[in-house]
Design brief:
Bound molecules: D-glutamic acid
Number of strands: 11
Number of helices: 12
CATH class of the largest domain: Alpha Beta
CATH topology of the largest domain: Rossmann fold
Largest sheet: 7 strands, mixed
Radius of gyration: 18 Å
Strand order of the largest sheet: 4-3-1-2-9-10-11
Strand content: 15-25%
């Protein structure tokens, strides 16, 4: 049996990461878990985010995965040290891949980072960027309304541009040349963000960043068979499936609910 790559997120947004990994590794089996019962993680405390992340990781580890990808930026920013104690398999978050690309892309060393309150409060991106480029100036900003806009499917609604303008004005004033989209949902707003900031600002999509990062770490598989996709959520299968089809551009093949108790029960 082929061992799968496990990916978890607080909900549906991590499918942007799933999609990037699927594109980079067409033959790998992928298992996705979205914690839709407890989303959003963004406003929660580090302790709660760590506790939830550990439970999500345990579920995926029980499926016998060979690599664990933490698609959620909020989890990636606080939970990696605790997750790394759970297993010897590689456990990879989105912060380092996104930060590496940002540092490679910037010319004026003024880098913006946007994310949830939890991600921004943790300063994880800012620390990772400065460890790679000590002269970088990092401007960080939480944009909590971006997640509900995307979940509502309003990324092309005029209100999206209005909210982007309101949040990102300080980024324009700070003359950044690179902006890290440090949240699973933000790549779905990249066209609006780009329209407001203009073409000279390079957007770093943390979903694509991890696809590229993994390609360097994992050998390509030479199996003719396409990889299998499995999806699990902790609640609201229908809502997940609706948003998922928007993100993936295709309907989900299988989707199962997992009950969040001491032991995991797959229904
Ligand atoms: N997945 C989260 C992240 O990337 C966004 C949604 C949430 O707040 O849970 O930070």
């Amino acid at each position: 049996m082929k061992q799968a790559i496990g990916i978890f997120d607080s909900g549906v947004g991590g499918l942007t990461v799933f999609k990037a990994i699927r594109q980079a590794f067409p033959q790998q089996d992928l298992i996705y878990f979205g914690d839709t019962a407890r989303v959003p993680y963004g406003p929660k405390s580090p302790n709660t985010i760590i506790e939830y992340s550990v439970q999500n990781a345990r579920f995926l580890l029980q499926q016998g995965i060979k690599t664990l990808i933490v698609a959620c930026n909020t989890s990636s920013s606080v939970a990696i040290p605790d997750l790394s104690k759970l297993s010897n398999i590689p456990i990879i978050g989105v912060i380092d891949p996104g930060s590496e690309i940002a540092v490679r892309s910037t010319e004026n060393k003024k880098i913006g980072v946007i994310g949830t309150e939890g991600t921004i409060r943790s300063k994880a991106y800012s620390k990772a960027i400065k460890s790679l480029e000590p002269n970088a100036q990092v401007f960080s900003l939480a944009c909590p309304l971006f997640v509900p806009i995307v979940e509502e499917g309003w990324q092309d609604h005029p209100i999206a541009l209005r909210i982007v303008q309101e949040y990102l004005k300080p980024m324009k004033d700070n003359d950044i040349d690179t902006l890290v989209l440090g949240c699973t949902h933000y790549p779905l707003l990249s066209h609006v963000i780009q329209e407001y900031l203009g073409e000279k600002v390079k957007l770093v999509d943390s979903a694509n960043a991890i696809g590229e990062y993994l390609k360097k770490l994992m050998p390509a598989e030479h199996d003719a068979k396409p990889g299998k996709d499995s999806y699990f959520v902790s609640d609201n299968e229908d809502k997940f499936a609706t948003i998922a089809s928007r993100i993936l551009g295709a309907d989900l093949s299988t989707l199962k609910r997992v009950r969040l108790y001491e032991s995991w029960f797959v229904e």
